[in-house]
Amino acid sequence: MQLVFSDAQYWEDFLPLTFTRPIAEMRCGILTFSERWQKILATTEVSWFTEMYLQQKFREPEKKESLFLVPNFLPTKTVIQQIKELKQGEALVYEDELVAAKINMEGFSLHQIEKMTDIKEELVFFKKPTDLFTYNKEAIDFDFELLTKGKISQELSSTNGFLGNKEDLFIEEGAEIEFSTINTKTGKIYIGKNAEVMEGCNLRGPIALCEGSKFNLGAKIYGATTIGPHSKVGGEVSNIIIFGYSNKGHDGFVGNSVIGEWCNLGADTNSSNLKNNYGNVKLWNYRTKDFQDTGLQFAGLIMGDHSKTAINTQLNTGTVIGVASNIFKEGFPPNLIENFSWGGFKDDERFKLDKAYEVAEKVMARRKLPLTDGDKAILKHIFNEY
Fold this sequence. Notes:
The protein is α/β, with parallel strands linked by helices. It folds into 2 domains: about 1-125, Spore Coat Polysaccharide Biosynthesis Protein SpsA, Chain A (Alpha-Beta Complex); about 130-385, UDP N-Acetylglucosamine Acyltransferase, domain 1 (3 Solenoid), CATH 2.160.10.
């Protein structure tokens, strides 16, 4: 059966991360929401109900019987069973919002729903970017069990120091860890296929280092941290998520942050995650078009795809950076850096679209991936409309 991921309720709330992807393609824990649900429901037949300009890359649903799903929550075992047992015209509701329904996408309408059942259990629900790092521990725990149950981990090399329960460490095939310290007393640690932890690293879980990614020499990694596939991280990080294909390879601190794909943080880039007055951090909200109180004392950087910082960049607490921005000027840039900013400051010129394509092509070629026509169309739409 076709699984349809819905962006109807929350897409705008996750900007700038969702400028270039549906909600289901965001990473939290070890997996993206899409990967998690495909594994839970044992299906690969997926489509996306999202913004029209994204549908060229993320295919529209076929007009047939489907499981319509809001992807951005962690289900309990009971809820998973409830979803699997849904019949045509039935739906599940959580806190007055529809989260799953068995409907026909032919003449799609919620009027098809004849029976709604309330989910009684409390769920971990992700409604905004800061929720991704706030609940990343819960997501890592969920995915760790999902991915490692019934599997055998590689042995940890004797060159390493280890604290905690060995059952809370899983090392996939081809991964390498030497002369580092690994602490699972504070949370589970997952090292993905062909990932590498270089010498002198200190890992304090929960941590997910995904396939083909690296912790550079001497990195200090505090949980709950997720480094998506084919990324490099050095220096000091605490409670961050990198979706994938991005680098923070050198010294500098980033904490309580979410970074998209194809980003690069230059050497000694530092992002504050705590205000000097210890007050709550405000973040730009694209829906309300103003800065909103997060209710959090710790919140750092939210960074859209294809953005870059120069060496020694300093970012203030609660900075939001859009898509394809380049930050390289002296001093603290503003807390909102628009899409395609060239410099990072208000009234700076825009990064030219053809130059953005050129840089993206070079960056993606290093990972042996093309910048497709679909990717270009998405960037062009963002450039023109946002």
